[in-house]
Input
Amino acid sequence: MRRIPSLKLFLLAIIVIAIASFFGPAERSLGTNVRLVYIHGAWVWTALIAFGAAAAVGLIGWLLSRQSLHIWSSALGQAGIFFWITYLPLSLWTMQANWNGLYLTEPRFRFAIDFAIIGILLQLAILILRKPRTTSLINMGYFAALWFTLTRTEQVMHPPSPILTSNSLEIQIFFFTLLGLCVFALWWLSHWLRQRTNERR
Output
């Protein structure tokens, strides 16, 4: 049986996510526009999961001296940057649809822009250096800085854990299903990026 390429599975997952987003449960105050909030939230959580996984795998790679884990750290970091960058237009769309304007000075949005720029520059450095062990160190440092800054960034348009504190089980089930689909897409994108790294070696 012929194996389906990782990139095709990633693209298939994106299509499924896009279709599933139209079936999210409406919410009393935001109506059907809350569906943008679901995908926006799941997308950025996926980016954070990718960065955390890149840091964790990189650390294990250092502890065990495994080159293959450093390569996985690189792939997860690159996939995380993809989700982080594409989360930005989703954020703008969500602002416009739900609050009829773009609040570009919102602290969490400025934070996202800053770490998108930093992340792109670091990933470019990783591609230039081509040193897997250094890649893992960069990914660990990036995630630590991102998490430290995130926990200290003021929340204005981002209430803390709105899904986790929701009284609607339907909303919670839908959101975590959507998050699962996003993580599925993350896995196949990371898998494809790892394959490309191995091909260049």
